[in-house]
Amino acid sequence: MSEAVIRTVTSPPGLLASLDPLLREWLPRQRWFAGKGRPVTGFSLVAATELLPADSRLGLHHVLVRAHQQYAPAGGAAQEPGDCYQLLIGTREALPPRLAPALIGHVTEGPAAGRTAYDALYDTRPAEVLLEALRTRARIGGLRFERGGGTETGPGTDTGTGTGTGTDQEIRTGLVPRLMTAEQSNSSVVYGDTFILKLLRRIVPGINPDLELPLALAREGCPRVPAPAGWMMADLAGRSWVLGVLQPYLQGATDGWELALRELAKGEDFVAEARALGRATAEVHTALARALPTVTLGHAQARQLAEGMIERLEEAARAVPLLRSYAPALRTAFTALADLAGEGRAWTAQRVHGDLHLGQCLRSPDGEWSLIDFEGEPAKPLAERRLPQPAVRDVAGMLRSFDYAAHSADVRVPGWAESCRAAYCTGYAEAGGHDPRTDPVLLRAYETDKAVYEVLYEARHRPDWLEVPLAAVRRLSVPEPA
């Protein structure tokens, strides 16, 4: 790609105004749109950069746009500040049939009048533009494309600079891109079975753990997490925004969720894989504890942690009537944690994955497990996602995932989830030197907190799945034997 092809200019004035009516219809339908159920009242432009000229056969615009919505507090309708979304918008005179699923709409006014706007990640040429920009470490307006191995590569400060990682990987030309169509909270493009570029859709300024933690693990030489080969940044108003991360594509790998359901369908156990996955998790936790600071959770911090869990329980019980009868028993899991802290117990907190489940784990054809997607729970504030936490939080997430798999399979295998949970903890103890089951109060608190979150999520988004976390709620509401 030559400098004549990518011009360092902002997009033409009036672009957002011309797209406004189309985006109001299209954006809420996207899987990654966070504000479902509330109408979009307008947009404000955060930044727009022209990657391919609007008057060419194919126009391409990188757009950061804030979507404003209404919500209904007690005093009546009010405006929310709005989430910021990353869009890659292509314009053509007409869309070929292969791009029909990418249609945003037909533009009737403004600089792209008479053309068709579409989600450009579906298109080969725009995806090639992004990879070429990463390959050449391009600067395009406020956009910055970085690669590993340099001196200005990591998000070590709020300006996005840091030390080199030693993970510089050659990015070849001619890698054919394809958009992954599986529903997810972001968008991913695979390049020739060599790299995968994850484009964050809902973005916030600051250091994103989806780049920060894999870079830290790469510096530690941890093989369980693919090392970033490149990343996209935006520099706006003195702050950096992480837009996307390029990592090696693990060809032939199977995600843990798919693999677990496959074994369940055959009536096979998953014990060996669960044990290996426990070892992989412990190795990642150990490397993170070496790479980044740890803290001690004393009485005050642990009580605050328990109070947050109680608040989430109360909120969920208000929203989901089926949860209310179990709430008093579930609350004891959190008060027991606070009581234990009051007796002088303390815990070590460190950086963790933050949203670990079977779908965030990949097994390679040679049987090795890798962990991916370190973004944490996207709905939570970035500062909260970057807080040190007890490693058992990730363990609890995986234990809940085994339960989900067992209840989601067409064929029910008695005791499948229980045997996987035990094997996972055993594997974790083998590699990490600590068995999570030896701290039952902390483990129960985190697993209960996760189940409560799942109840609220399923009630709002997937009512047909509500029985899965409710089954866990019934189990967790029964006090364990002393």
In short, what is this structure?
With 482 residues, the protein is an alpha+beta fold.
Topology summary:
Blueprint: E1 9-10, H1 15-26, E2 40-52, E3 59-71, E4 78-79, E5 83-92, E6 103-106, E7 116-119, H2 124-135, E8 139-140, E9 143-147, E10 177-179, E11 187-191, E12 195-199, E13 202-203, H3 209-219, E14 230-236, E15 239-248, E16 254-255, H4 256-265, H5 271-291, E17 295-297, H6 299-319, H7 327-342, E18 347-349, E19 361-363, E20 369-371, H8 382-385, H9 392-408, H10 416-432, H11 440-461, H12 467-476
Antiparallel strand pairs: 1-2, 2-3, 3-4, 3-5, 5-7, 5-13, 6-7, 8-9, 9-14, 10-11, 11-12, 12-15, 14-15, 16-19, 17-18, 19-20
Helix pairs in contact: 3-5, 4-9, 5-10, 6-7, 6-11, 7-11, 9-10, 9-11, 11-12
Kindly provide the radius of gyration, computed on alpha-carbon positions and rounded to a whole number of angstroms: 23 Å
What is the overall shape?
Answer: globular
Number of helices: 12
Total E-strand runs = 20
